[in-house]
Specification:
The chain is mostly helical. Helices cover 76% and strands 0% of the residues. It has one domain. α2 (39-72) packs across α7 and α9 runs antiparallel to α11.
Length: 374
Amino acid sequence: MQNKSVSRIFGLDCVRALAITLVILSHCSFLLFPGETSLFLDSVRLMGAIGVDLFFVLSGYLIGGILLKQLIDKKTSWSFFLNFWKRRWFRTLPNYFLVLILNILLFLIIGHSLPKDIFLYYLFFQNFAWKHPNFFTEAWSLSVEEYAYLLLPIIFYIGMIINKKWKATKFFLWVTISTIVALALIKLEYFFNNEVSSYKDWSTSFRKVVIYRLDSIYYGFLAAYCVKLYPEFISRNKKGFLVFGLCLFAVLHIFIYMFNLLPQNNMFFYTFFYLQLICISLIALFPNFIELKSQTPFKSIVLFVSTRSYAMYLVNYSLILLSLQRVFDLEETSVLSKVGLLFFFLGICIIISNLIYVYFEKPILKYRDTKFPR
C-alpha cells in the first residue's frame, strides 16, 4: 500500500474508516453504559464485531488481489512470494510489536501478572486453536490475518511447483474454495466437541480463534477474483449487490432476534452459517465502495481516519479504554463525567494513533516501499 494519497482508492479508505468507526463506537458504549445491557446496546456492541469482520474481508480483498495478479503475471518463484511476505510483515508487524510492548510495560507498571505464555504473542500463536488470553485482546484478529497471509500463498507456491501450466485464475479460484471447504471441516471438530453457555463464551472459543476464522479472509480473496474477472458485470449490478448485502445483513439479524437464536441453543447455525453470511453481506457492499468518488468535503477526514485506523485499532481498547476503567469507577460516575471521559477517550485515541502513524508507521512503510518494491 502506497502512502501517497494520489495512489489510494478512496472507496477502500471509506471501508477502513467505517470499520474502525464501528469498533470505536462499540467501545464507547462501555464508557457511557458500563455494566448495562439492552437490545440497543447489544446492537451497538455487535457493530464492533462487524467492524472487525469488515477489516477481515477488506484485507482479504486487497491481499487476494495482489496474489492473483502475481499468479497471472507468472511471478511464482520463491523470491516473489518472499517479497510479498516481507511487504506484509513491514505493514503489520512493527505496529503490532510496538503496542504489544506498551501493553507489557503497562501491566508491569500497574503490578498485574502477565500471561505465563506471553512469548506466544510474538509468534501470533496465543489463540491458534484455543481461547485468547485476557491480555492485549485486539491481538486475536492480527493472529488470524498473519496465518491467513501464510497459508494460501504457501499453497499457491507449492501448487505452481507441481504444475506450472495451471491457468492462474482457475488455480486461484479452486485453491481458495478448497481451502474454505477444508476449514469448514475443521469446524466440525468444534461443533461436536464444545458446548457454550453464552454469546461471549462462543466468541472467545470460536469467533476469536485462528483456525476457525481464516476463511473470513479468504472470502475477500473470492471477491478479488470476481472483481478481476467480471468487472463490467459487477459495476453494472452494483446497486443490486448493495440491496442484497443490506437485506442479507438485516434479515439475518431479524431472524436471530425473532427466533432467539443464541450460540448455546443453536450451535450449528453459529458455527457454520452466521459469520460466513456476515462476510458475504459485507462483501456485497464492496462494488459500491470501490466506485466512490473522492470529490467530497469529507475526503480529508476519511483519509485521516483510514491511514490511522490500524494504529487506532491496536491502542483504543487495551491501552486506553481499560486504563480508564481501572482509574475510574464508571458505574458510580455521573453522566456529565462520563461524557467528559468519552471525549477524552476519543481525543487520546486520535492523538496516540496519529503519533504512531506519523513518526513510526509511515517511515517504516516508506522504507519498505524503497527496500521491497511491489
